[in-house]
Specification:
With about 450 residues, the chain is mainly α. The chain has a domain of about 200 residues. Helix content is about 75%, strand content about 0%.
């Protein structure tokens, strides 16, 4: 039964990835329909006496509608904060954007620096690193992409390049001790997150250098495609928006700083910060209710669509993760490694971490796969700290290309890049950074038990 449940999970998630990569349907529809088909099939099998609930460890050993409803509810709850964050943050930034706030800042920057493609790509990487100090992928996307996207469009640079540069820089920065993955791994091995991070610092520094190098290389690619053209030395200017209003520019500056500061110091839930910011920004910039409604209508379409996608992802997480199916998937992967090569399991998991990120969300990877790997490697005398170093760094690099990470969907929505195009463009670059960091960790003696 465990093997069957594992295969069901792989087939279901693989089918979702196929639907997304082939543009057969929207992410929300793929998440919802496939998840409900899998859920219905498992409940029917349990009803027929095949003991699916017992195999999954469901309370009462019965996988009925009530149990599945609880899993789905738990899954949706895991993305509800992110969904609320997206809706109100996009509304907040849309109001500022409509008022010409970002255009004014961008025009100022463009008047002070040469609109060089390489400068823009390096600046994007550095901004993503700096902003991601708070450990929030959603907040980083929300700050960097709206600020840089108009410049990329103006210079003829691909939006997928913007997303790739952000994802590479953020993935490496995400190993900070207050970042979610590091905290999860430290919890599993019962260690202090700071101790784990201290081991990771040399590899993180290399990863940041690689992210900057990638930004330069992407700039080279864009330049070869003709981006920037012969704009060097020519003053660029972003055109005025339809609802341009410069009256409250300085107030908007202070409002944005206040919202970002509230996010960094974590004084309120992130979505509440944007709720308050939006509630102040809209009537401030557009006291005329008719104009305010037009601004709101223009922004709400994309916000609602992404909200639906995030809720769909929550249903997927509920059916595949909260039910325990992903635990079975993780265990089945380990059975592919012969016992005599057990000491190589951490290396195999590290090398496959980026591909695995496409189907395992952060929670399922660290709370589902990692405990199973830990239980196996303990028998071979492998230090749990070494395993944590490998799994944290290798997986973190791929965090923001994973379609089951809500922040990834948020970034794609903000940059107007499909998840398919983002994965196709970013996958091998991110995987290369992950593998290079792992090799460095072995050579430097940070990971002493790979062989």
């Amino acid at each position: 039964m465990d093997l069957f449940l594992s295969l069901t999970g792989f087939i279901g998630l693989g089918f979702i990835v196929w639907l997304l990569l082939k543009d057969k349907t929207t992410p929300a529809i793929a998440f919802i329909l496939v998840s409900f088909v899998v859920a219905a099939m498992l409940m029917i099998m349990d009803y027929c006496g095949l003991e699916v609930g017992k195999a999954l460890g469901v309370k009462g050993d019965v996988l009925n509608f009530k149990a599945m409803k609880g899993f789905i509810k738990d899954g949706v709850n895991t993305v509800s904060d992110t969904a609320a964050l997206f809706v109100f943050s996009i509304l907040f930034f849309s109001v500022l954007s409509a008022s010409g706030f970002f255009n004014k800042i961008i025009n100022f920057l463009l008047s002070k620096v040469t609109p060089n493609v390489f400068v823009i790509t390096i600046l994007t990487s550095l901004m993503a690193m700096f902003v991601h100090l708070d450990g929030s992928g959603a907040a980083t996307f929300l700050i960097v992409i709206p600020a840089m996207l108009p410049i990329y469009e103006r210079l003829g640079m691909r939006k997928s390049s913007l997303l790739l540069i952000c994802a590479s820089a953020m993935g490496v920065m995400n190993v900070l001790p207050w970042g979610g993955p590091t905290l999860r791994a430290a919890t599993v091995i019962e260690a202090d997150a700071n101790d784990l991070w201290h081991q990771l610092i040399p590899m993180q520094v290399l990863g940041l250098v690689l992210a900057l190098a990638l930004a330069i290389f992407i700039g080279y690619q864009e330049k070869r495609r003709g981006a920037g053209g012969n704009l060097e030395g020519i003053k660029l200017e972003i055109e005025k928006s339809e609802f341009q209003n410069d009256k409250f520019f300085l107030v908007n500056v202070f409002l944005l700083i206040a919202v970002i500061a509230a996010l960094v110091i974590n004084v309120l839930p992130s979505y509440v910060c944007f709720m308050i910011g939006f509630a102040i920004a809209l009537p401030l910039n557009y006291p005329n209710l008719k104009i305010a409604k037009k601004v709101l209508d223009k922004a709400s379409g994309g916000a609602i669509m992404m909200y639906i996608t995030l809720i769909g992802a929550g249903i997927l997480i509920g059916v595949f993760d909260k039910s325990g199916i992903m635990n079975k998937m993780g265990a089945s992967i380990l059975t592919l490694v012969p016992n005599e090569y057990g000491n190589l399991i951490p290396l195999v998991v590290g090398l496959l971490a980026v591909p695995m990120a496409l189907i395992f969300c952060t929670d399922s990877y660290f709370y589902g796969v990692m405990p199973v790997v830990l239980s196996v490697t303990n028998a071979f005398g492998i230090d749990p700290m070494n395993l944590a170093i490998i799994m944290v760094l290798a997986r973190n690099c791929a965090t923001f290309i994973s379609p089951v990470v809500p922040a990834t969907l948020l970034g794609c929505g903000l940059a107007d890049v499909s998840i398919k195009d983002h994965i196709k463009r970013s996958f091998f670059y991110i995987w290369a950074i992950s593998i290079i960091c792992l090799i460095f960790g072995y050579i430097a003696g940070i990971i002493p038990h790979l062989f």
